[in-house]
Amino acid sequence: MPIAALSRHLVNKIAAGEVIERPAGVVKELVENALDAGATRVDVTVEDGGRKLIQVSDDGAGMDRNDAALAFAPHATSKIATEDDLFAIGTMGFRGEALASIASISHARLRTRRPDEQGGWEVLANGERIDPPVPCAAAPGTTVAVCDLFFNTPARRKFLRTVNTEFGHISEQIARLALPHPQTAFTLRHNGRETLNLPVRENTRGRIADLFTPDFAQSLLTVTPRSGPVRVAGLLGPPSAARSSAAGQYMFLNGRYIRDRLIGHALREAFRGLLAPNRYPAVFLFLEIDPADVDVNVHPTKIEVRFRDSNRVYGEVLAAVRETLQRGDLRPDVQAAAEEEAGASPASAAGRRQESLRDALADFFKSAPKPQPRLGFPEEILPQRHRGTERRSSELPIQPAQKTQSTVTSVSREEAKPLPEYISSQESEEQPAVAVVPLMQVHDSYIVAQTPDGLMIVDQHALHERILYNEFRRRLTAGRLTAQRMLIPQTVQVSPAEAALLDEATDLLGKLGMEVAPFGPNVYAVQQYPTVLAERGVKMDAFLRELLDTLGDDEQADPERLLEAVLAMMACKAAVKAGAPLSLEEMRQLLTGAEEAEKASACPHGRPTTLRLSLKDLQKQFHRT
Ligand code: ADP
Ligand code: MG
């Protein structure tokens, strides 16, 4: 093929591919334009997840006839004129290709009016064609409507996910744009329903209260601002608000949402010791850096940036967050409330702050065993063939074979009571020879048991987790998990993006025995949930937060992997925790499932559950051979 310059239309389509991956990309570009135009309110209307319609209306500066004629033209921008401008960008957009790109892959309509003019201008753009402006009636400001996105790029269209997923991305996009602009009001409507209404607020905390919940906004610590060439400000969630993915982390550079690994590292470092290693703190961080010291053009949608002095950025974020945490009041809410009631004087507040961090740290490292519901395997989890004996024997606890020393064991608190002779003898006659005999529990976390050919040490949480996981799997191949209805539905506040995730996962959740349905604006109610979670006393709100994180994790896009992730998470939540004291009987129940669990290859986290030492091993260790 001879070399030929690409047609303008083709160039635009290629550019569109980079900037506009999905409807949320259109929303981003249009809202950025509205903010650049000084809008004090931005109304976004979406139909069918953005495939059918995306419309963004603002009350900003508008355009005159000339500008309107050029708006859809490639590389037409009012934001940079000279090369110097390129390195001192104060606006959101500046490459002048967004509208051109969007117009090349949709049917777009622009209506705009400058406040000082009587009438407005309308421009239609249609794939390759841009019509000249015609007069129209319009309110001051600009409205861009984008219809039939990707109508001429079938490949893109094919990659679109469901309506709910695409809308979820749009909703998240609005959050990212609205957080740094609390002085601009936003609304978002989807298929005729208003899903977001964000009035003008004085500050980011107010905006967060509207986007999330007022309680969450209240719980945030204000970052001690630091001056200098890298200015850091923001709000930090308490350790209790941390999540299992980075989805709750919002970082902005000069008012623009960014993702940055380096800042992620700095956060992890600052929260070290306050959070388990795989937890991500909720943060809203706002960095201000001279635009000349940042290259924002390393990524087509500018979501990743390059800092001139990245060490400095790392150092400043670390220092700011660390200082904030150190003076912060990190006590759990319950404790704080109790003290307030007890009438602690305000004078002691400062001293208390100092203590509170120590307390929080101490609490964290103690990882205090919360009162656990008894292990009592739910009927559906017990392997069929053990069921009869298990149930009977759990009513008739077996006496420990011998008294173990209280310094190394915590077993037999309730079981020490001797059994009536006749019962135990009857039982022992009926029962087959027990292969694995639990001896004791060590540090409330490990079970030591005798096996026919030696001994084994079991990680109680890991084992229980694996048993549950395998059982879930087995049950799902046969049908669904058994469920029970909640007497009083438990309600949860969700963001529109999270609501979309829940809608999307209805089938999956149904299999698990969960029914979660809309209950009001931003509120969902759990009507029904898996029996196993009920019996294990798993808190529904905490469970739902984990569930949403798992559902929202992009890594789990594949349905099979998503199911696996959800099952693993459920197993982990329902499994007995490390640190929970177990009775001998409970240990026995747990060990009954051990052998099968070990054999099954599927396993939630791939950790070993059991350590075995054979008599041979012991003999070798003690040089008896
Ligand atoms: P860029 O934002 O990079 O300049 P765009 O293609 O997004 O490029 O927009 C082209 C131009 O159209 C902008 O520079 C601006 O002058 C004008 N424009 C676009 N949207 C609006 C709007 N909502 N209000 C006022 N002017 C707008
Ligand atoms: Mg723009």
Question: Rg from C-alpha positions?
Answer: 30 Å
Nearest-integer average pLDDT: 77
The fraction of residues assigned to DSSP E strands is 15-25%
The number of E-state strands comes to 23
Give the low-confidence spans.
331-433
| Largest sheet composition | 9 strands, mixed
Summarize the structure.
The protein has 625 residues and is of the alpha+beta class.
Description:
The chain has 625 residues and is an alpha+beta fold. It folds into three domains: 8-198, Heat Shock Protein 90, CATH 3.30.565.10; 211-327, Ribosomal Protein S5, domain 2 (2-Layer Sandwich), CATH 3.30.230.10; 334-552 and 562-625, no CATH class. The protein contains 24 helices and 23 strands. A hairpin with a 6-residue loop joins strand 3 and strand 4. Helix 1 crosses helix 5, helix 2 (23-36) packs parallel to helix 7 and helix 20 runs antiparallel to helix 21. The longest helix has 19 residues, at 460-478. The chain binds adenosine-5'-diphosphate and magnesium ion. Residues 29, 33-34, 37, 58, 60-63, 67, 71, 76-79, 93-100, 142 line the site of adenosine-5'-diphosphate (ADP).
